[in-house]
Amino acid sequence: MSPDKGSAYTHVVRIHESGQRIDSLLGDMEFIYSRSAAVRLLEDGSVTVDGKVVSKRYLVREGETIDVFVPPRDPCHLEPEDIPLDIRYEDDDIIILSKQADLVVHPAHGNWTGTLVHALMAHCDELGTLQGPDRPGIVHRLDKDTTGLMVVAKNDTAQAIVAESIKVRAMDRRYIALVHGFIAPDSGLIDAPLARDPKDRLRMGVSGSTSAKQAITTFKVLERFSAGHYDDGYTLLECKLYTGRTHQIRVHMSHINHPVVGDQLYGSRKEKADRGLRRQFLHSWRIELQHPRTTETIRMEDTLPQDLIHVLEGIAEESMGRTESGGMIIPRINRDEAGSPGA
């Protein structure tokens, strides 16, 4: 990777963003991890609007050009670290790996070391640089305690192509989630825009604000479980992302009153109802994409980790039966070996 010289970004204010405070607008952008970071950049003079330095209270207007320079981090934050990686596929362009729980994807406030990025730097001599110095190789993310398949780009060309495939919804990403309660229909669609919670920057929420971004999740019911003494039953789902917003599945399921089991941020946080699980029951089990160089279709599947299997075993006697989709998918997420790439 080339030496870290910082990153420059340009954003032209869109009509629905007009009237927002600039610190709020920048704080919601992918390349700035928080509103406080945006404020620091504004105070340091690293942000200009049509060539002029502005205060954090500045209200942006449609058509204005915002230029942002994000200075390089201290190199100690990006030292390679010997962290085990579960790699399922690798060539000169991409890596597909299964991320373990309790692993943050890239450095950010409170997690400057011990991330997936640090592990990737120890594994690879080169990674894509288009997402900035803090996110080499990253094209999409999983939450810290969400497990399963992720794609990493080893060069800028691959990173650009894979990122575009996500943007145009050409990459198929599917998750397994166990949620609280009984979902009656066998399938559903949640189309609800998301924005950061103005009172808690760690949370996202369904919002009608002008800063909210479109978020679409579909789901299929795989299996239902009857209510017990400490719970109102469970439903096992396959969820498909059509957009990739922060915490999207977790927020959408909470929004329809079926929070993900074990979710400490959006769930009930009742230990018995969560079956003792201290992380969200959410697993990226299937990815399908076109290879950025060869255009070959690559499909990968990943079985559930043992802690999630243990939860399902604990409620197996309450099963109300599998759906047709469940009959096809559940044997695949419970088998001993994950799938392999193929056309």
Short summary:
With 343 residues, the protein is an alpha+beta fold.
Helix content: 10-25%
Whole-angstrom Rg: 21 Å
Secondary-structure element pattern, one letter each: EHHEEEEEHEHEEEEEEHEEHEH
Distance N terminus to C terminus?
Answer: 31 Å
Features:
10-stranded mixed β-sheet; 7 helices; 18% helix; disordered C terminus
What order do the helices and strands come in, and which of them pair?
Blueprint: E1 7-12, H1 22-27, H2 35-43, E2 47-49, E3 52-53, E4 65-70, E5 86-90, E6 94-99, H3 116-123, E7 147-153, H4 156-167, E8 172-180, E9 187-191, E10 194-197, E11 200-206, E12 216-225, E13 234-241, H5 248-255, E14 282-290, E15 297-301, H6 306-314, E16 319-322, H7 324-334
Parallel strand pairs: 7-14
Antiparallel strand pairs: 1-4, 2-3, 2-4, 5-6, 6-7, 8-13, 8-14, 9-12, 10-11, 12-13, 12-16, 14-15
Task: Tell me what the structure shows.
This protein is an alpha+beta fold and 343 residues long. It has helices at 22-27, 35-43, 116-123, 156-167, 248-255, 306-314, 324-334, and strands at 7-12, 47-49, 52-53, 65-70, 86-90, 94-99, 147-153, 172-180, 187-191, 194-197, 200-206, 216-225, 234-241, 282-290, 297-301, 319-322.
